[in-house]
Amino acid sequence: MNDKIKPAHQVGPVSAFFIPQVMQIGIGYLSFQQIITKYSQQDAWLASLISGALSLGILWVVLRLLENERQFGMPDLFSIHTRIFGRRIGTILNLFTVTHVLLFAIMSLRSYIEIVHVWVFPQMSMFLFSLIFCLIAWYIVSGGMRTIAGVCLLSFIYLVPLSILTLFIVPHAQFENLLPLVDHSPAALLKSCYELTHVYLGFELLLYVYPFISNPREARKWAFRSALTTVYFYTTTLILAIAYFSQGELQNTIWPTVAYWKSVRFPLVEHIDIIAIVLLLWATIPKVCLCSWIIARAVKFTVPKIKMKYSLIVILALMIAGTTMIHSGLQVKRLNDVYATYGVLIIYIYLPILLFCQWIKKKRGRSAAS
Amino acid sequence: MKQKAVLIAPLIAILFLSGCLPTSIIDDVLLVEAEGVDYLGNEKVMGTITMPNYVENPNPGSAGAGLPTTASMLRHLSGVTYDGKSLVDRFQQSGQMPIRVGKIRLMLFNTAMAKKGLYKQIDLRNRDPDSPRDMNFAVVEGSCRKLLTSADYQTQIPVARYIQDMIEQNTEQNYPESTMESFMYAYYGDYMDPFLPIIRKQGDHIAMHGLALFKNDKYVMRLSENRVFTFKMLFQKFNQGVYDYEFAPNKHIAFKNVHTDVNYKVKNGNSAAPDIYASVNVSAQVRQAYPKSLSKASSPVMEKKLNRHMAKQSAQLVRRFQRKGIDPLQLGQHVRSYTRNFDGKSWPERYANARFHCKVDVTIKQTGISE
User: Would you place residue B52 in the very low, low, confident or very high pLDDT band (cuts 50, 70, 90)?
Assistant: First the structure.
């Protein structure tokens, strides 16, 4: 397992842009405005900037962790865990982080189904949809990392029209709503920041993908560009939401982004919102693919005997089961909360601690050698 | 190869099996285009829905294809139900084909309904994922049912599209925007009240008839047609409106505004009597004037007159709103925007005492092609 990844299996450095980007932008994009403005009303965009800056900081931590690890073997989270904490504790920690990845996949898939149920097909069978979905995921993941990166690129391209659709509401926006600037206490802003972290989650998956990206020096730059693009994307969407809705209405709207789409009018295509929701399928496919690939790799790392080909099927079956077990919108919301808290715990608390541990280990190693 | 077939076969089977979701094919459903609600009293309403009729006239081109050319589909349904009931569900039992809300264009309320309060109807619309946010709401003077079901209009296009076209072209001129989007904005927003256009049937056609101003969800005040320009001038940036000014008895001058913008400033927003300053710039193009009343040389005089007149009218308008306790101009929102730590709780009382200062600056760009 400590071999280097063959260049034939590696992807170009630009993938470090597309992969985290696509992981970050998902179903949360449809609804994040309402939750965030609850605490800091017109200043929520500031919270978005702060959260974005924090996510850039954590990205730095992630890349630092990986680069420090390169000299000891494979630069990914699994190797870091086992090297620093030993085989047994390392495996437990792997389980701890990989559970979050599994939760991420289930959450993305289930939230997408939820959206389709509410807006397009209330009768759609959850089981059959997730089955077909996971078959697609199986097909893509069987193609290996390069195929997954390709799907991420496609997803990015397909989602560009959706962000352009948002421009249609600019003429209806009243930017006066953003005033007075910075009229909220730091506590309210922090609360909003906390609510926002879960929409910025996803870039940390670089921890698992990194060894597959060639030319790390370039890749790091692309990773930062990706995080910056996400910050820009979410902040502009948020500013538009504040300007387009009155605060009372925003608190009343569960999916503000879909409400934007509902007010777009084309002469022939009357319901742009439905088309946009169907297109959003492309935001979910790469997530489920990458997550199941990561989990399959984790299984292979722990028990090298099991081939990824076989574990993948079990993992996808697990995802289908997990998805169909969640019945109501309320449960989706609760799961989302669990996922968000878990994510905050990992990103803002666990990763910095890990970097610290790595540093200690390095110090000790050096003092032992001298 | 065999392995692949084993995998692909169930996939195809699943795709076909799960494709069996209920469909709504446009030829096989009745697509509701307009809903009208007349209040009957005692929480009962008379609901009316209209559907477009795609095969009204014999079509010489459709030889044998589709429906027989003499066929006519159900065009409207009405009946009594309770306030807040989804009309589509109510009339499903009388539907020739499934009735669906695809792209509803219009929602009408008669004055009694609007005076009684629309909160149930608004909730119904806001909850429904199918209703588009660009649909139009309007208050009808008279009966919605009569307006929607009359067959004596000059135009042949379905009445819902007729009314929507009329409202839309008017909102590009004198009337302020009044789609579901802007109504919900003001209805759910704090420190503001919504408004809707009033329409009524006049013989063989329909006409706009001023604005209905709401206090929360209740219609409390009517703004007559000649005040609508002033209202829109204070409400938003616009052009293409026409204003008619009677500067002396039976002597009129009418101008079209090339451009109008409005700026608000607020002082002492948290005091008992906030000062609201509105400054309006109007670029006007004179369309019509009393003979010999206006020339290039005398236009500054007329401008001054207009400035004074429009400022006075604006102040009067706002005073009327304050007396009624309604805020369709969203002045409260302006005060909130320009005041730090805005005190929202006491705003309703302070609004009544707010001092509104209006400065209008009319520029007559041209006076026509003759002296």
Answer: confident
Q: Measured between CA atoms, how close is A367 to chain B, in angstroms?
A: 57
Distance CA B147, CA A68 (A): 76
Chain A contacts of B188, Cβ < 8 Å? Answer: 246, 248-249, 251-252
> Which residues of chain A neighbour B103 with C-beta distances below 8 Å?
270-271
Query: How many domains are there within chain A?
Result: 1
Find the chain B residues whose C-beta atoms sit closer than 8 A to any C-beta of A. Answer: 11, 14-15, 17-18, 21-22, 102-103, 126, 129, 132-134, 179, 181-182, 184-190, 192, 333-334, 337-342
Are A102 and A295 in contact by the 8 Å Cβ rule? The answer is yes
pLDDT tens figures, B120-162? 999 998 888 888 888 999 999 999 999 999 888 888 888 888 9
pLDDT at B72: 61
Q: Are strands B205-215 and B195-202 parallel, antiparallel or unpaired?
A: antiparallel
Hey, how many other C-beta atoms are within 10 angstroms of the C-beta on A131?
19
Query: Mind telling me how many Å the CA of B81 is from chain A's nearest CA?
Result: 26
User: Which residues constitute the domain of residue A229?
Assistant: 7-360
Task: Please report which confidence band the pLDDT of residue B290 belongs to, taking 50, 70 and 90 as the band edges.
Answer: confident
Of the candidates A119, A130, A100, A149, the one whose C-alpha atom is nearest the C-alpha of residue A30 is A119
Are the Cβ atoms of A259 and B133 closer than 8 angstroms?
yes
B298 Cα to chain A: minimum distance (Å): 38
Please name the member of A172, A180, A265 whose beta carbon is closest to the beta carbon of B339: A180
- Is residue A235 situated within a structural domain? yes
pLDDT one-digit tens code per residue, B213-268: 999 899 999 999 989 999 999 999 888 889 998 888 888 989 898 889 999 999 98
Of B134, B334, B340, Cβ closest to residue A183: B340
| Interface residue A142 vs chain B (CB under 8 A) | no
Provide CATH 3.30.300.210 ranges for chain B.
225-371
Are B110 and B138 in contact by the 8 Å Cβ rule? The answer is no
pLDDT value for B57: 52
| pLDDT attached to residue B69 | 46
**A118, part of any domain:** yes
Hey, of A34, A120, A181, A262, which one would you mutate to test binding to chain B, going by the most B CBs within 10 A of its CB?
Answer: A262
**Per-residue confidence (pLDDT) for residue A182, from 0 to 100:** 84
Q: Which residues of B touch A40 (CB under 8 A)?
A: none
Q: Which two tokens stand for residue A64?
A: 């630092």
How far is B226 from B199, CA to CA, in rounded Å?
Answer: 15
CATH code for position A163: 1.20.1740.10
What is the fold of B225-371? Answer: GMP Synthetase; Chain A, domain 3 (3.30.300)
What is the pLDDT at residue A1? 44
Q: Where are the beta strands (DSSP E) in chain B?
A: 30-31, 34-41, 44-50, 76-82, 99-100, 106-110, 136-141, 195-202, 205-215, 218-223, 242-248, 251-267, 275-289, 355-366
* Host H or E run for residue A199: helix A186-200
Closest CB to A249 among B132, B188, B340: B188
Helices (H) and strands (E) in chain B, counts: 11, 14
**Partner residue opposite A246 with nearest CB, options B185, B340, B342:** B185
Report ipTM for this prediction: 0.84
pLDDT for res A199: 87
Residue B82, min C-alpha distance to chain A (Å): 25
Low-confidence ranges of chain A (pLDDT < 50): 1-2
